[in-house]
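User: Can you predict the 3D structure for this chain?
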Amino acid sequence: MRVLVVGSGGREHALCWALAASPLLTKLWCAPGNPGIADIAACLPIAATDITGLVMAALDQEIDLVVPGPESVLVAGLADALLDAGIACCGPRAAAARLEGSKSFTKEICEAAGIPTARWERFEDAEAAREFVRRRGAPIVVKADGLAAGKGVVVAATEQEALHAIERMMEARAFGEAGAAVVIEECLTGQELSFFALCDGAHAIPFGSARDHKRAYDGDLGPNTGGMGAVSPAPGMTKEAEAAIMAGIVRPALAELARRGLPFRGFLFAGLMHTEEGYKLIEFNARMGDPECQALLPRLASDLLPALLAACEGELAHFDLRWREEASCAVVLASKGYPEHPSAGSVISGLDRAAAQGALVFHAGTARDGGGNLTAAGGRVLTICATGPDAEAARRRVYAAVDAIDWPDGFCRRDIGA
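Assistant: Here is the predicted structure, written as C-alpha cells:
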C-alpha cells in the first residue's frame, strides 16, 4: 500500500508512526509533514489546505489511501475531491463533516436521532444572544457555530464572561466567520471524556477513549487551547460504558447521517460528559483528536492500516481491534505565550534523552534552522507520550522524559493525568 497522511501536527506524526509499522505498507508520504515525520515518511511541500495540490500529488504518486488529519480540510471537501478522482480516503465527505463544521447541525442530528445532549439555542444576532444569556443566567456555554481550531468554546462561570464571549465571537470576529453565529447551551456537569469510533458509513467499532486537558495551565486554569495533554483510557471507562456510548450516541448518529444520504466514513470523535443522568454529547468531531491520537495509538496492538482500509471499503461489520492492557499519558510542550502569542525560533535539544526514558516524541510545531538545529515554529510544539501498567506509572515515565528535554522557551502542564 502507498499511503499519504495529510497534516503537520502531533496527531499526524502519531498516525505516520503507527502506519510505518504496518507490513502492508510499501511507502509512506505526508503533506506537508514536519521534521519528526521526515524521519519516517517522505514529506511533500503541499499545504494541508491545498486540495487541488493534494489530489494531483496523490495521482502522481499512485497513492492507494489518503488519511486526513485536520478537520478543516475535511469540511472543505478533501474527501470529495479524492473520491471523485478514484482515490480512497479515510475521512468523511464535506456534507458529513458538517458534524464538526457546524455545532447547530450536530444538535439537529442529536434531536433527530434521540442522542442526549445539552439544551441549546442558535443565534445570528448578538443582542438576541445577550438577552438569552441575561434570561438564563450562568454558568452557561457559548460556542462559535463554525470551526475555530478547538478554541471557540467558552464555559462561562458568570453572565459577564458569557456576554464578553458573544461580543468577541460575533462582533469582534475573533474566529472570523466561524463566530458569525453562536450556539448557547446549558452547562453540563460531570466527568468529561473523549470517545472515538472508526466508521464505514453503516457500521462502527470502538477506537478507544481519552481524557483531554484543554486549559493552558495547571489546575485547569487559563484560556482554552487545542489541548495540553491527554490520558488513555479515560478514567472509569469500562466495557459496559463503551457499549452504552456506542449504542446511545455513536450508532444513532451514524444511522441518522446514513438516513439523510450522508454516510460517515473515518474517525468519529464524540466529546462527552458523564453526568448523573448518563453520557451526554458535548460535540462531535470528524477526525482523530490532538493530543488524544498521540495517547491512543501507542496502546493499539492491531495493525492500523487494514482497519483504515476496512473503514473505506465498508467492511467493519466483522472487524475487531486489539488493545494493549496499558495506560498512556501524553504531555504537550508549547511555546511560551501560547495560545494567544506563542514565541518562535528558540532551539530545542535533548529529544534523544527523552526517548531514552522510554517515551515517544511526536513533533507538531517544529522546524530546522540554517544550522540544522530543531526550533519551535508553532504554539503546540511537541507531544511526549509514555505508557505504563497503570496511569500513574505512565505519568511518572512521561514527566521523566519531559524533564530530559532542554527548551527554556517552552512550557507544559504538570498535572496531566493527576
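The chain has a mean pLDDT of 96. The first strand starts at residue 2 and ends at 7.
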